[in-house]
Amino acid sequence: MIEYENLGKVNAPFFDDYRQAFGKVLDSGWYILGNAVKQFESDFAAYNGSRHCAGVANGLDALILSLRSLGFENGDEVIVPSNTYIATILSIVHNGLKPVLAEPDIHTYNIDPARIEEKITSRTRAIMVVHLYGKVCDMASIGAIAKTHGLKIIEDCAQAHGASFKGTKAGNFGDFGAFSFYPTKNLGAIGDAGAVTTADEGLHNAITTLRNYGSRIKYQNEQVGYNSRLDELQAAFLSVKLKHLDAITKHKRRLAQLYQMGLKDDFIKPVVHQDYYDVYHIYNIRHPRRDALREYLLKHDIRTEIHYPIAPNKQTAMAGVLDNTPTPIAEEIHRTTLSLPISYFHTDAEIARVVEIMNSF
Ligand SMILES: *Cc1c(COP(=O)(O)O)cnc(C)c1O
């Protein structure tokens, strides 16, 4: 059996260090916003080349608080890709803002800059880009559009830890980079966790205030805040794992290379371009007979996943939230995409086996 993911196996190499980190937090007697959170925030900012990093409870909150801090008005519009994970869109809805879908590029699966411009109105305030599957969006074009129209940029970096475009890492192109450390992500905690990066000190202070009941000084509440603090234990575990993130990325990139070289051309493979350093949170291919292919692989004991089976505007929760503008490109991706095993614990031999079975389909 070749599993799609096994988080016990992914984390096993770090267990000893995790236990030590756990002991240290336990002994400290300080369990909320203590030294471990401060340390991780500084570690991750340094790793990412970001001026500031604020730990928050999860990736969705990282997006929600980023938008919240920008002070938009009810009904203002935020442009977001039509093929993203639902969390990106929910963060807009939870702020009383209107998500406006823009279609992705069929080759990169990332939001198409040309289609962003078509969606800009007098109510547009921001673009939420999603660096899907671990490839950074075309931030040169998107940055230029945002500048021309005076729009904010929030980057959903949940799948793009360490990914870069022309040498700059995800989370440094926009006003905010919102990260998730959900256990399956490339930098995954062993529970929920998230963070927000920014170059702006005022915006950083806004996030650290909002995450802690809108309070900077104990029992003085300046804003209608949230409880969305990064957990002290998760921060300690994340500092351990962050030291190994580049090794994790290198491993995944090598496995991706095996797929790229080995898979026959019947499968539409991810595009590779020298300006982009991709981290392959997900390695997807597309095929017109995706469901039959998935069954075939399962019969040969190979597990796969679909990211994602249903387009956001086809979700029940989005009825009456998203308008009915068709999103044929997103739907084509949702209909044909298949995610192949590419975890830190997978061996070259396992990937060779997946390639062999795939090619016999
Ligand atoms: C995982 C993910 C999120 C949400 O992160 P959580 O930590 O689960 O809240 C948001 N956006 C994208 C693209 C994701 O993949």
Question: How is the secondary structure organized here?
Answer:
Blueprint: H1 7-11, H2 15-28, H3 35-48, E1 52-56, H4 59-69, E2 77-81, H5 86-93, E3 98-102, H6 113-117, E4 124-130, H7 139-149, E5 152-156, E6 164-165, E7 168-169, E8 176-180, E9 194-198, H8 201-210, E10 215-217, E11 220-221, H9 232-242, H10 245-262, E12 276-277, E13 283-286, H11 290-299, H12 328-336, E14 337-340, H13 348-359
Parallel strand pairs: 2-3, 2-4, 4-5, 5-8
Antiparallel strand pairs: 1-9, 6-7, 6-12, 8-9, 10-11, 13-14
Helix pairs in contact: 2-9, 3-9, 4-5, 10-13
The chain binds pyridoxal-5'-phosphate (PLP).
Pyridoxal-5'-phosphate binds next to helix 4 and helix 5.
Can you walk me through this structure?
This protein is α/β, with parallel strands linked by helices and 361 residues long. It has two domains: 7-102 and 110-242, Type I PLP-dependent aspartate aminotransferase-like (Major domain) (Aspartate Aminotransferase, domain 2, 3-Layer(aba) Sandwich); 245-359, Aspartate Aminotransferase, domain 1 (Alpha-Beta Complex). Helix content is 38%, strand content 16%. The chain has 13 helices and 14 strands. The protein has helices spanning 7-11, 15-28, 35-48, 59-69, 86-93, 113-117, 139-149, 201-210, 232-242, 245-262, 290-299, 328-336, 348-359, and strands spanning 52-56, 77-81, 98-102, 124-130, 152-156, 164-165, 168-169, 176-180, 194-198, 215-217, 220-221, 276-277, 283-286, 337-340. The protein has a seven-stranded mixed sheet, sandwiched between helices. The protein has a three-stranded antiparallel sheet with strand order 7-6-12, with no helix packed on it. A two-stranded antiparallel sheet has the order 10-11. Helix 3 (35-48) packs parallel to helix 9. The radius of gyration is 20 Å and the shape is globular. It starts with 6 loop residues before the first helix and ends with a helix. The model has no long low-confidence stretch (mean pLDDT 97). Bound molecules: pyridoxal-5'-phosphate (PLP). Residues 58-60, 84-85, 87-88, 130, 156, 158-159, 180, 182, 192, 194 line the site of pyridoxal-5'-phosphate (PLP).
